[in-house]
């Protein structure tokens, strides 16, 4: 046994251990949550207010998570039946709107997270 608890939940943004039930449910600690909320309110995004609201909701619901490459996220669809790959670096998303060259709320959510937390090490 290594002495590590296999049930430890870590912050999706910074990787620190989460201890409060609220933080565990949210997937982020209070400091990272505050950074995300500030970025959601202030980030300059080429989107409509309703897209910003959907992006913020996606983040708050834990529907977008970082992948191993910096700036790349997995985002769930609004009905939860599909998962899309969002690449903030390339400005792309694999959702239908993204594949048609449109700016989607998944990409907005990825840009908010990247602005809030910055690029994380792979």
Keywords, separated by commas or semicolons:
single chain, 122 residues, alpha+beta, four-stranded antiparallel β-sheet, 5 helices, globular
Q: What would you report as the Rg, rounded to the nearest angstrom?
A: 15 Å
Q: Quote the distance from N terminus to C terminus.
A: 27 Å
The fraction of residues in strands falls at: 5-15%
The major sheet is characterized as: 4 strands, antiparallel
Cα shape: globular
Q: Summarize the helix and strand pattern as letters.
A: HHHEEEEHH
Summarize the structure.
By secondary structure, the protein is of the alpha+beta class. About 40% of the residues lie in helices and about 10% in strands. The chain has a four-stranded antiparallel β-sheet with strand order 1-2-3-4.
Can you tell me about this structure?
- This protein has 122 residues and is an alpha+beta fold.
- It has one domain.
- Helices cover 39% and strands 12% of the residues.
- It has helices at residues 21-26, 30-42, 49-60, 96-99, 105-117, and strands at residues 64-66, 72-76, 83-87, 92-93.
- The protein has a four-stranded antiparallel β-sheet with strand order 1-2-3-4.
- α2 (30-42) crosses α5 (105-117) and α3 crosses α5 (105-117).
- It is globular.
């Amino acid at each position: 046994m290594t002495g590590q608890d296999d049930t430890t939940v870590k912050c999706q943004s910074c990787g620190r251990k989460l201890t409060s039930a609220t933080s565990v449910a949210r997937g982020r600690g209070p400091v990272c949550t505050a950074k995300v909320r500030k970025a959601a309110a202030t980030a300059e995004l080429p989107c409509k207010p309703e897209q910003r609201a959907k992006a913020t909701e996606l983040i708050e619901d834990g529907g977008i998570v970082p992948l191993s490459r910096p700036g790349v996220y997995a985002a769930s669809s609004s009905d939860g039946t599909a998962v899309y790959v969002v690449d903030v670096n390339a400005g792309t998303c694999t959702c239908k709107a993204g594949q048609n060259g449109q700016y989607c709320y998944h990409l907005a959510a990825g840009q908010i997270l990247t602005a809030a937390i910055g690029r994380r090490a792979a």
